[in-house]
Amino acid sequence: MFKKTSAKYSYDYSYKNPFKKHDVKRYEKEKMKKEIKESKEEKRCSYILELEGKGTVKVKPDVATVTLGVITENEELEVAKIENSRKVERVLEVLKEMGIDDDDLQTETFSIEPQYDYEGGKKVFRGFKVTNKLTITIRNLEKIGEIIDTAIDSGANIVESIKFSIAQPDTYYNEALNLAILNTIEKARSIEHTLKVKVNMIPIKITEESYGYAYPVERTYMEAVDTTTIIQSGLIEITARVNTVFDYE
What we know:
249 residues; three-stranded antiparallel β-sheet; 26kDa_periplasmic_antigen; DUF541 domain-containing protein; SIMPL/DUF541
């Protein structure tokens, strides 16, 4: 039978075991091989390499969001509101005629503010300012300049911002994510060569750290002009970052 010693269990040959002696030796041999294997694996996994990777993809945008609107002022509030409403209705009408869907038109801001002048140190009421801003989603970027000019010709007197984006960014983000992982593998190979070690290029852990989109944004305030407005969309940078753990020996 097996007897407990100070370190391990050992076989007591005085006990008449129903198993044969060579079976016991084979058991002890297999047990020793298993312990050696586990010891090697534990030793090998005790050395880890943690690296950060970054991947960036540059993409031409396919969607533009334009914020424009109408500002009217008058001493009488109702007059300012009616004039503003009439101009906004006309702007919406021409935008729809140019192919902008109702779902791509949204009121961003509507406000009424009293206006004052200061004369001789005194505040003098001047009238009311009515502001109605619209957010327009444009999916045909070739028409941005034409759409802005048409809106201005129809009564819009403020163009506040133009922002470019991508309709389906996840496709490009996954590409950036793959590049980020490859970036960590390249770093691991460089370290392997420098330190003369053997790095397992299959990561034992990958953590997605963050992602971000760098949108090109153009901001402008403009009045009606005679020439066609030219808008440059530029490129959007989509970035992924990962933290990757490798083991080496």
